[in-house]
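Reply to dn_fold:

You asked what the input looked like. This is it:
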Amino acid sequence: MTACGASSPPQEGIVDRVIDGDTVDIAFGSSLERVRLIGIDTPEIGYEGEPDECWAQEAKHALERLLPQGSDVRVLRDVVARDHYGRLLGYIFINNERFVNGELALYGHARVLSIAPNEAFSREIRRAADTARTSNLGLWRACDSSAR
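and this is what came back:
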């Protein structure tokens, strides 16, 4: 899955570690940034004794497979650079333009989370998620309908 365009020049970085299904730490030179993938939402991992949401660990493992530690990535930002937690918001690309955000949606690891004005790739992500849902993949197959 490929995509092009967005509001700012890309930043090249190296994956430090995956936090969950839609968040990753990336080193940009000597700076380490927590990056939240734009346009998708994956089930939450339970912290402080709370249980994981359905498909949370599978989504995290899918992102770990796409972005193993040490991977070179290209991060594109959109209109709003950071979320209310201070995380950098980005679209992540690997290996000749593979669109990570879209692939997570395409294989049923993520739902669409479109928040204006950061919508440069919302149509592509929505199409990918629709394909996963109609194909009954990933969380669409494993999790009850209330999670859809």
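The domain at 11-139 is CATH 2.40.50.90 (OB fold (Dihydrolipoamide Acetyltransferase, E2P)).
Hope that clears it up.
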